[in-house]
Design goal:
Pfam family, one (chains A, B): RS_preATP-grasp-like
Pathway (chains A, B): Purine metabolism; IMP biosynthesis via de novo pathway; 5-amino-1-(5-phospho-D-ribosyl)imidazole-4-carboxylate from 5-amino-1-(5-phospho-D-ribosyl)imidazole (N5-CAIR route): step 1/2
Organism (chains A, B): Flavobacterium frigidarium
CATH class of the largest domain in chain A: Alpha Beta
Strand content of chain A: 25-35%
Largest sheet of chain A: 9 strands, antiparallel
Subunit structure (chains A, B): Homodimer.
Protein name (chains A, B): N5-carboxyaminoimidazole ribonucleotide synthase
Oligomer: homodimer
Distance between the termini of chain A: 48 Å
Amino acid sequence: MNYFSSDFKLGILGGGQLGKMLLFDTRKFDIQTYVLDPSDEAPSRMACNKFFKGDLMNFETVYQFGKMVDVLTIEIELVNLDALEKLESEGVKIYPSPSTLKAIQNKGKQKDFYVENNIPTSKHLRFVDIADLKKSLEKDELEFPFVWKCAEFGYDGNGVKIVRSTFDLIDLPDVECIAEDMVPFKNELAVIVCRNPSGEIKTYPVVEMEFHPEANQVEYVICPARIDDKVAEKARAIALNVSEKFNHVGLLAVEMFQTEDDEILVNEVAPRPHNSGHYSIEASYTSQFENHIRAVLNLPLGNTDSKVAGIMVNLVGEDGFSGNVIYKNIETILGWNGVTPHIYGKKQTRPFRKMGHVTIVNQDIKEARRIAEDVKNTIRVIA
Amino acid sequence: MNYFSSDFKLGILGGGQLGKMLLFDTRKFDIQTYVLDPSDEAPSRMACNKFFKGDLMNFETVYQFGKMVDVLTIEIELVNLDALEKLESEGVKIYPSPSTLKAIQNKGKQKDFYVENNIPTSKHLRFVDIADLKKSLEKDELEFPFVWKCAEFGYDGNGVKIVRSTFDLIDLPDVECIAEDMVPFKNELAVIVCRNPSGEIKTYPVVEMEFHPEANQVEYVICPARIDDKVAEKARAIALNVSEKFNHVGLLAVEMFQTEDDEILVNEVAPRPHNSGHYSIEASYTSQFENHIRAVLNLPLGNTDSKVAGIMVNLVGEDGFSGNVIYKNIETILGWNGVTPHIYGKKQTRPFRKMGHVTIVNQDIKEARRIAEDVKNTIRVIA
């Protein structure tokens, strides 16, 4: 198949920042891309060959879009799976496959999948609604505290809550959900796995999410994770296993907990480029985005090793500011060694909206971490 | 000035592959860009905010384009300078400035500039036409062999010829030209200098152009050059001096000869991103393209050091093939360590047309050189 400067068409469902970053590589390779997104202001609108505005959950919209392309991939997992299944049955190549997406899209099914496949994960219970969950509490099958997650449509911490008492149940939406055991953990880790249809498979190094000591928010994604080599090896092996069991093609970001006694438990997965891999644009031989494109086109995968240490800081809208965005002090951080801001192109900021990220690379991970903290304390996303 | 996700507009004259690569960074920073190019199929057409089709040498076209933007830059030096001068007088910021472009656009003036500023360069004579040159030969002011260059509009080896006898004069076009002494040299080197309007200035490492032993064609651009540190320091110092003397803003690629006795002679300059800096996308902390954008917007310059060794191989159309391009064996080279093809997006190949380049990066420059040779011998640009 001739992908380069040819009539071949890659379709991407979703046109957010992940799609935008995928398009850097389709442009680099001059691969034709069609993008479908509900927003007129989608960051991917520019730099794709054709942009289509439409609802990703609408059967007809997704089906008609899919009929126009040769290979279809996603940058968001909330898409109409019935349309994908029909397209696949009609010969469109879809990566990740609808069956993989089905196993991942519902967090209850995803957790069941880990249990069925002997993949270490925290204990969980599934509930069709809140009444169902309350019954379980009454019967003492479920105990406080636990982690509540809505089964579908959660993202970026939305749809997740730590429930410590009946009081915490009041605000929860009445939807299908799961309850997970609270796991005391030392580190939250992630491994991105890349696999092509031929079965070639590679993992990126283990990254570490460093949390703010009080706010319990991820502040830095650090590559490589500052953990014992044996723990890192174990995490990579488990991530590989997860990817193979899902028979996954493309990128699979596997989020994991490192428990107090160095067990690795899989938390959840995302079948696409992931925030925890953004550092790879500057730090890796091959970025996660390029490897996603290579994988879904069944090209050989690129080297996932790092050239240098990389740290990623998210740029989120500051609380109390809404309106036309200003990146205050961005000129200052541009003057520092190895600092690259990525501005996603959303014109309006809102409190905690993901507006961009900053990568800091350095030969010395400690120096990168020092600069990252300065970046975090200097740049402000305001209106 | 707020450049990021704002109403600010950067104009780029020229929409070829250099412009395309500049747009990766304007997109990364979400800086609005307008592009002017004569071709409907300009590689920059996608990924800019607005594309205008028009003649870069036409006064009115360039003037009207310039009136729409806040800062104007170039990716090709053959543009209407009268329009730029008028725009500058009316307050449009133009980098590089029309006066710098004037001193560079004509190779005769450029050589005079070096002489006036005590910048080491080979001896030259200027001629208004071929008759003028022939008179000089008759008067023995000029002797065979010499290097003939047309004064304007040459590029990529066009407009350059080694003249060894009267016979070689027959095919030369009757235009303004110069004759330069033939310099026996060990190496052809280049240094890219980056300077912003505030006067911050940085140089990239010295790169070396390795020639095919028989064909006398550049085969590899190698960073860092495999030369003595002292020679490298001298080359960087001379390049810095050239940039300062031109009072240049943006990127200035300074091409130089290293003579048999380790003298450095300036050959010529290009006031824009340059083929000799393409390796920087993968190998440097900050690519030449990002630094050009930073410079013309008077932002702090990024680190010009390399993370790893980089080698660039041009992808040119193979002789004997014209038509819809096929990159034969590109799948093979994608499987090799640190290999990144850049496909410019020209749909039609022609003999020797520049269609793309491939970068090879590695911790070990010898390993990179070995892989580069395999790349060169494997990939074919055919129809």
